Amino acid sequence: MFRVGLTGGIAAGKSVALDRFAELGACVIDADVLAREAVAPGTVGLAEIVEAFGADVLAPDGSLDRARLGTIVFGDDAARGRLNGIVHPEVRRLSAEREALVAARDPRAVVVHDIPLLVETGQAESFHLVAVVVAPEDVRLRRLVSVRGMSEDEARARIAAQATDAERLAVADVTLDGGGAPEALRAEVDVLWERIVQETAEELA
Q1: What transmembrane ranges does the database entry give (predicted)?
Q2: Are residues 78 and 123 in the same domain?
Q3: Fewer C-beta within 10 Å: the chain N or C terminus?
Q4: Is 100 annotated as a binding residue?
């Protein structure tokens, strides 16, 4: 099994790259999806969050009120650290479970892990290859404001809360340019996919 860690800053174009990997035949594991599963109603993760931050972080239906929790942790490093200490281990557990199922079906599979906080959580050494999607900050700001409806101040704060481009590039085996048209990024993923397929074939040979 060939394991790829895919990361990039917010609004850099990572979802475009992930979708293309899936179309090409990779098994994709999305850390954001797993993070939602980890704190779904009835989970240990949600219970621990309530214990740490109080019942006010619950919506009326018993699910996690992400907006409310976000206001608590976003500007508080200690609170965000407590939250990450709850969620990240659960995400890794769920990710390992998904990967084990894939390996059981096809030991030669290519598994792409979409991990926005790959650098921040120190997981770069866990993969055969780390691919980083990059885009200029002004492009990312424009996308966050025009597409996601954020204010410019909010968008800048979101970018500043993540690892820097330099920190991501320091662990990158491959960089993918997400600053232009989606078609261009998809073409770069195609080239990388050919390289991965060739490398895995050579290993098997």
Answers
A1: none
A2: no
A3: C
A4: no
Domain encompassing residue 47? 33-108
pLDDT digits (tens, 9 = 90+) for 31-61: 999 999 999 999 999 999 999 999 999 999 9
Over range 79-108, report the average pLDDT. Answer: 92
Q: What is the pLDDT of residues 106-129, one digit of tens each?
A: 988 999 999 998 998 899 999 999
Q: Does 11 count as an annotated binding residue?
A: yes
Total number of domains constituting the chain: 2
Looking at the structure, tell me whether residues 17 and 64 fall in a common domain: no
DSSP state of 64: B
Q: Are residues 115 and 190 in the same domain?
A: yes
Q: Are 14 and 135 spatial neighbours (Cβ–Cβ below 8 Å)?
A: no
Of 186, 184, 187, 188, nearest to 175 by C-alpha is 188
The residues near 70 (Cβ < 8 Å, ≥ 6 apart) are none
CA 169 to the chain's CA centroid: 16
User: Is position 17 annotated in a ligand binding site?
Assistant: no
Q: What is the pTM of this model?
A: 0.88
Judgement on whether residues 4 and 46 belong to the same structural domain of the protein: no
Q: Do 13 and 113 sit in the same domain of this protein?
A: yes
Q: Is 131 annotated as a binding residue?
A: no
What DSSP letter does each residue of 107-135 carry, written as one string?
TT-EEEEE-TTTTTTT-GGGSSEEEEEE-
Domain boundary residue among 55, 77, 108? Answer: 108
Q: Consult the annotation and say whether 151 binds a ligand.
A: no
